[in-house]
Amino acid sequence: MKQVKDPYAALRFPEFRYFVTAQFLFTVAILIQEVVVSFYLYEITHDPLSLGLIGLFEAIPYISLALFGGYFADRKEKRTIIQMCYAIIMMCSLLLLWVTHPSTEHGFSILQQKNFIYLTVFFLGVARGFYGPAWSSLKPFLVPAEHYSNSASWSSQFWQTGSILGPASAGFLYSWLGLTNTLILVIILFLVAFVFVSQISKKGIQHIEKQANVFGSLKEGIRFVTSNRILFYAILLDMFSVLFGGVVAILPVFAKDILHVGAEGLGVMRAAPGLGAVLTMLGTAYFPPTRQAWRNMLIAVTGFGLATLVFAFSTYFWLSVGALFLTGAFDSVSVVIRQTILQVLPPDDMRGRVNSVSGIFVSCSNELGAFESGLLTKLFGPIPTVIFGGAMTLAIAGTLFVRSKELFAFRLEKTTKD
Fold first, then answer.
1. Subcellular localization, per the record (predicted)?
2. Alpha helix stretches (DSSP H) within 46-177
């Protein structure tokens, strides 16, 4: 008798529910904080490069530490690492609250405020360097292997739902409550997320040869990624498309100076990619894109590049929102495929290191992409910057299509069953 597919399989495990709930709350909080702080920074500086520098100051510590974060995620208890990182992130939010509070902000010059914000973002990057690998490598221990693809879809969906509600509410919270009260709300959300993480039991640490030194162990993780062609190419494709095609970092420029929609419009624009992603991921729970994975990734990235070009040329707010919606919809397909690959291929004792390598590539695409966008916007303007990004995304997808035709025969669903 044929077994009926259960689209809610992963959610039937309590610890996975705690996991995705904490992920949702954390995502909402961190994105509210990111949007309101970025908008505040652009309001006091009117400099798009200041937005790009936020990405740079977060990327430097993350890239420097992520491999070591993966090393510790494979050797230490993952939940404890996550809790410690939450504590650091909450302290960073408290510092932001102090620096921008009405009772203290006038005691600082604009330059001093900028430096405090960059310092805070730097320590957020430090925390992410250890948090990211521990969080990613914890997920496979919460559901059986046959539900990895389903858990990847639901995890991405909860994250994307948070990525809708966080930015969408941020603009309105900034206008209605002000920066101070919004940051207080962010801290409360972090505390609740901490409580949900604490409901997950501690997981055993996989046996690893004690003779292996740190750098030898890290090289082993890098070697695993580069030797698996489908994994390596999936990461490369995702990295370069977002590195050049991502426009999130400079959305305050479009909201304030081009479309003239203010903080509320910025919130809608920031939420649009997440809305597109979560609606698409509802479909992936029923129709997983992991069948013919590489073909689907190339199609998705091509769609991402085309939607980015539409956004670049748009002068109408709702057309711009629609284009951003499509970027999220297309990006979500590649996210589900990549997350499934990251759960299926690595052995248990290498998940932390492999996820840290992937995390470095993702950070390069997000944070360094933000710096690239901010710098090019300052030099050439926002519209030429986005046109360049969309065109580069299409060129990268075409190049990898030519170089990787053998990957069209790869069947990820067979690997999952095995």
1. Cell membrane
2. 48-75, 78-100, 102-105, 110-138, 148-176
